[in-house]
Amino acid sequence: MKTVMMLINGFGIETDDSYEVYNQELMPTFDTMMKKYIFSRITSDVNTVYEGYRNMSLEIGELYNYHIYSRESDNGNIKQNAVITNIMSELDTRKSKLHLFAFVDTSLKISENIKSFLKTINEEKNKKIFIHIVLTSTNYEDYPKILDTLSRINIDISEYATIGMVLGLETILNSNPVIELNFFLKTLVTEVGERWQSFKQKLDVSYGTKKSPTSIKPFVVNTGFSVGNNDLFIVWNYDNIDLTNFITGIQSINYGKDVTNSIKFYSLFPITFKEQIPNILDYEISEKSLAANMKGLGFKTLMLSQTKDVSVINYYLNGLQNINNSDITYMDIEPIQYNVESIVNTINTRNEELIILNYDITKCQTVEELQKSLSQIDNVIKGIYNIFVNNDLNIIVSSLYSMEKNIPNEKEEICHIKYDKVPLIYVSKQITKSNYIITEGNIDGLLKLCYKTVNNAYNGETMLNKKNLLYKLIFK
Description:
Layout: E1 2-9, H1 28-36, E2 38-42, H2 49-58, H3 64-74, H4 82-94, E3 98-104, H5 109-121, E4 129-135, H6 143-157, E5 162-168, H7 178-190, H8 199-208, E6 219-220, E7 232-236, H9 244-251, E8 264-267, H10 290-297, E9 301-305, H11 310-317, E10 328-332, H12 340-349, E11 354-360, H13 367-390, E12 393-398, E13 404-408, E14 414-418, E15 422-427, E16 436-438, H14 446-454, E17 464-466, H15 469-474
Parallel strand pairs: 1-11, 1-12, 3-4, 3-7, 4-5, 7-8, 9-10, 9-11
Antiparallel strand pairs: 2-15, 5-6, 12-15, 13-14, 16-17
Helix pairs in contact: 2-11, 3-5, 5-6, 6-8, 7-9, 12-13
């Protein structure tokens, strides 16, 4: 059976303190479907389309590679890891400092992994180890969560290491001017630079300027980390990244004509560099993904999205593989996004059993622009709903994430728009509001609903539950 999932990314349930954007007149079809069919609120703790597809396809709320390290740590294999054993041996023979550059987002899992690693290599607490925090989030609204993560790391590592510096990822990216990298290298050698002992104060300042975490300039937290010619470096990464300029810059530090720069590098997962950098773990393919379920349930998917998002969406839908899957077809939504006739024609003529439409309202710059976009999207929903009335079709309307932002209205008044949970409308002739409910869940359940509608043989758990007799009696 054909299923259409329409994602209005950025759309959510308005909170009490939010400026009211949504109303019945603005989205009459959405309102009708919300009242007539199965409706629920689900939780999303992400704020980008990339994170949304990661959670939805892989059924996890964070990078899959966090789980790889956690698994190896929990089963004890990490203590026998050859690269870690070599790092421990190097630290003992070199009597030097270890610099761990931890790529940090908003996940507390990072802190658990780093603590596990430090406990393994510094159980006697006699080694000089400095953690340098590299902030990777691009959304300034993540600062509160980042503060929680940094505070947790600070507590977890206190017995085994010290936080030296904090910097944004852009400082060491190859795409950034070398002058910024040189400024960082100077601080790394001399410890001379901006100093903040309170994470909260610094992050509050950056939040106030709406500066993304990834663009924060390096600042010093504790001293004593100045790099030496014999030190070890570990890039604590969960994604592949090109660090050619970063590594080359550190290797080129001059310690005097009689002193050889013998700094050695390692990484958690493979990174891009002209030479092979020993890595502790390798990337793995996820056993849970849209592609894996498509293979088992025998259906195909058509994905309508902006072209710029295709590569990342494809990576997650295929279980962390950059492959060309003939069962997943991509179409640029830009030329036809509000063209009801074109959208309806696409749904009617395509053979794929699952069609996913991606809309994004977060780019709207005024209240009026936002309302216009929602009104146009409702017209598309109406066109799709008309197909449902006369055909065997299922419709799911939801969002991968909500948003919070300040934008002006036509009177140039600043309006605070704050959505909480995201809506979920489930429209089906076979599964009706009188017999079923959708329990509160997360966005990783959206595809599971699609699987059940496309092929009833899917036996995995979903948010969809049949009403029992007691429920029917109480909630008639």
